Amino acid sequence: MLKKFFMNTLSSFVGAWIALVLFGVVAVLVGIGIVAKLGVTSSTPESIKKGSVLTIDLSGSIVERETPTQIDYLSLVQGDVERPQTLIDLVTAIGEAKENRNISAIYLKCGGVSASPATLHALREALLDFLDSDKKIIAYANNFMMGDYYLASVASKIYMNPGGQLILQGLGGTNIYFKNLFDKLGVQFQVVKVGTFKSAVEPYIMNEMSEPARAQLDTLYTNLWNVICKDISSTRKKLTPDSINKAISEDFIFLEPAQSDLKAGFVDQLVYERSMDSIIAKTLNKDVKKLNFVGPSVLLSQTDWGSAYGAKKRVAVLYATGEIVDGGGSSTINYKKLVPQIVELADNNDVKALVLRVNSPGGAVFGSEQIGEALDYFKSKGKPLAVSMGDYAASGGYWISCGADRIFADSLTITGSIGIFGLIPNVKGLTEKIGVTPQTVSTNPDANFPALYYPMTEKQQAAMQKYVEGGYDKFVARVAKGRGLSEEVVRRIGEGRVWDAMKAKEIGLVDELGNLQDAIDWVADKSKLGESYNVALYPSIEATMWDFLPEFANMKATEAMRQALGGNYDEIAVDWARTILTQKPIQARMPYMQVGFPQPLAW
Asked: What pLDDT is stored for residue 388 in this prediction?
């Protein structure tokens, strides 16, 4: 007893000590951030010397827009605290560079950029627009990843390390299937869904991809890849879509030496990185010692675009990024936060129009419905509403988009997936494995339905199917009303199928292929604002403390899964399983898919 008392006291002391240390670390970091923030806002914009070069470091992730930082313990200990670049900042900086007379060129330092095709396409379009100013773009890489090369292909000249590689392998992705894992855990998934192509449930109940799922992904990837090949060949005159595909499929270009890349016309010159300053100076007819490289942040300090929160004639751009949830952090779409923001913008007389920037694969049905209703309220105020789609605007992401007055999508956007599914786990096998025996007492047979500990009866399964079909009927009706289509047509193009934006435009799900600025221009014109209007981005970004404690809440569940697997498990798989088991049961979500470019070989 005394031993237990001392152990409890010691554990409480250690826990309190760890909490104090973590609080101290966070407090110091936040303090530094506040001081830095104050320093930035109080200073005047940095001057840019004549003949300067905007340097864009294409390495790491590019995300849609900045969000409050969320850092875990391991990141703090390892010092791995890095903020990704954002699409909106890069596009804005490139636009400023085009108009700034002191910027002579852009230097793309390619080092393995990580972003979805639509994000890269939007950035590429901004670079092409920059070239209209008759300024130069110069690109260099030790090794060109596919995403890097897609952007670099707009450059006036492309340089590569003589010992480098061009990792060109096409577009694709791998879906992971978990049925065997859940069988080992003793978890079975009971599925109710609407839509032949609503394949988001397949990884939990199957060991391989269904034919409809494979067919839709094959069509999707092929259409996206055709756009990418066409874009590259439009700016690299020695290349054609056919020659690019031949280099990949027949020549295995990613395994060829750099000389082959030069000969085929993918790059213009092979040089070591140390020579690039001299090459850039020669290109700009400048002394190499007088070169002045500036980063995107310097260009951003020259403009207040997007921060006109007090302007009288204001276009609001509201970001809806991540999975739609009924609660959650800054990397998700939390309807409890987004709905009040939409209502506030609707009631604000200074806000004349709204562009909803959607980058979401969908999520919770209830949250999607609440956001959709709030957007309807905004429209009821007689203000124009446009949607600008990013990488994804599918399933629940399309639910919140379809009521807009006009929908803009990037050529490489993935959209559609009009369908709903329910995924109800039955963990009876897991409880038996870990020695837990649930006992239920209730006044009615279905009082605890759906219950995790027992399989559904036929009657319960039928009731759940009816519920999901009712949700799908509402989805179809909303799309039909918003897009001016018959419900029969919507059901035909629905079925949970994902579409590339070009096909989505053909079938009426999208109005126009265009970027965020195109959507802003459209609502400004509909509002008759002329040229004298301002733009404000929402939600406004505020620094926050990181909430460490909730991570401990999931530790017991994780340990139970480890015990059930008997030590034969993969940590990533266990984390995935825990995430899946804590999702809402009814979802309007597109299938999980990894749409991207292959990574280089390790030598």
From this structure: 98
256 φ/ψ angles, rounded to the nearest 5 degrees? -80, 155
Which of 135, 198, 428, 503 is flagged as catalytic? 198
More confident call, 402 vs 35 = 402
| Tokens encoding 86 | 């954002």
Cα 478 from Cα 484, distance rounded (Å): 10
Domain of 352, in residue numbers: 314-538
Is the pLDDT confidence value at 75 over 90? Answer: no
User: Does residue 294 sit within a domain?
Assistant: yes
* Tens-place pLDDT, residues 282-336: 999 999 999 999 999 999 999 999 999 999 999 999 999 999 988 776 689 999 9
| Contact in structure between 534 and 313 (CB atoms under 8 Å) | yes
- Closest of 593, 558, 591, 585 to residue 572, by C-alpha: 558
Evaluate whether residue 411 is within a structural domain: yes
Which CA distances in Å does 154 have to 136, 137, 151, 314, 367?
10, 8, 6, 34, 41
pTM of the model: 0.81
Catalytic residue among 360, 368, 395, 417: 395
Domain boundary among 300, 327, 342: 300
Task: Using pLDDT thresholds of 50, 70 and 90, give the confidence band for residue 220.
Answer: very high
Q: Binning pLDDT at 50, 70 and 90, where does residue 172 land?
A: confident
- Tell me whether residue 433 is one of the annotated catalytic residues: no
104 classed as catalytic: no
By the 10 Å C-beta count (0-12 exposed, 13-18 middle, 19+ buried), 464 is classed as: buried
Q: How far apart are CA 384 and CA 526, in angstroms?
A: 7
Q: Does residue 181 fall inside a structural domain? A: no
Same domain for 82 and 128, yes or no, is yes
